[in-house]
Structures are given as structure tokens and as C-alpha cells.
Amino acid sequence: MVLNLGPVGCYPGYLVELPHTSSDLDEHGCIISYNNAVDDYNKLLKETLTQTRKSLSDASIVYVDTNSALLELFRHPTSYGTRTFPWFVNFNNDIKNTFSVFGWGDWEILKNLEF
């Protein structure tokens, strides 16, 4: 089983730590260039697995598209019974204040969390 890469451009750690402007973000608050790079990687991965299946015909190779599932959750969280995640709202591209507005507590603690 081979899992593809998820939409790292939507991951809070990237949004908090990497410099970007509002023009770098899509309508869901994700960094466009990172998700485009993930799409390119996942396409190459899928092509490579197709070739691998041919050369290892006795092997069972399963490609799992985690990217699409996670993108759907990031883009439509309330459709799946969860609230809107704080990193989806971007007030003047200030992620720190976005966390505070949504009641995530002390910024210095949040900055070091791994999501």
C-alpha cells in the first residue's frame, strides 16, 4: 500500500512558519504553490507505480489517494461534522491572530504544536 502526499499547503505548520502573502493562498487558505508541488509529485508517484506493477506483476501494489480525502476535509469541514478549522480563516494574512480569535490560547505554545 502506497499513500500519496497530502495537501501540505493546508497544514498549519506550513501556514504559520513559511513566509507568504494573501496572494499565495487559495480560497480555502492553503498555500497554492505547495499544493501544486504535491499534485505534481502525486502524479509522478502514480505513473511510477503503474510501471512498477508491470515489472512486478506478481506483486499487489495499491495506491491510496489520501490527498483528495484530506483536501475535501480541509475545504468542507462542516460537511463532515466538524467546525471550521482556524487556519481556514485568514485575517490580513495574520495566522497568529487567527489562532487567537478562535480561542486557541497562547500563541507561543501553539507555535510549537505539531498538527
Topology (elements, then pairings):
Layout: E1 2-3, H1 12-17, H2 32-55, E2 63-64, H3 66-75, H4 95-101, H5 107-111
Parallel strand pairs: 1-2
Protein model, in words:
The chain is mainly alpha-helical. Helices cover 45% and strands 3% of the residues. It is built from 5 helices and 2 strands, in the order E-H-H-E-H-H-H. The chain is elongated.
Tags for this model:
mainly alpha; 5 helices; two-stranded parallel sheet; 115 residues
Q: Report the major sheet.
A: 2 strands, parallel
- Count of DSSP strands: 2
Radius of gyration from the alpha-carbon trace, in angstroms: 17 Å
What sequence of helices (H) and strands (E) makes up the elements? EHHEHHH
Distance between the termini: 24 Å
Shape: elongated
Oligomer: single chain
Structural class comes to mainly alpha
Count of structural domains: 1
Mean pLDDT: 78
Instruction: State the share of residues found in helices, binned by percent.
Output: 40-55%
Summed up, the helix count is 5
Unreliable spans are 86-115
Sheet with the most strands: spatial strand order: 1-2
Structure summary:
By secondary structure, the protein is mainly alpha-helical. The protein has five helices and two strands.
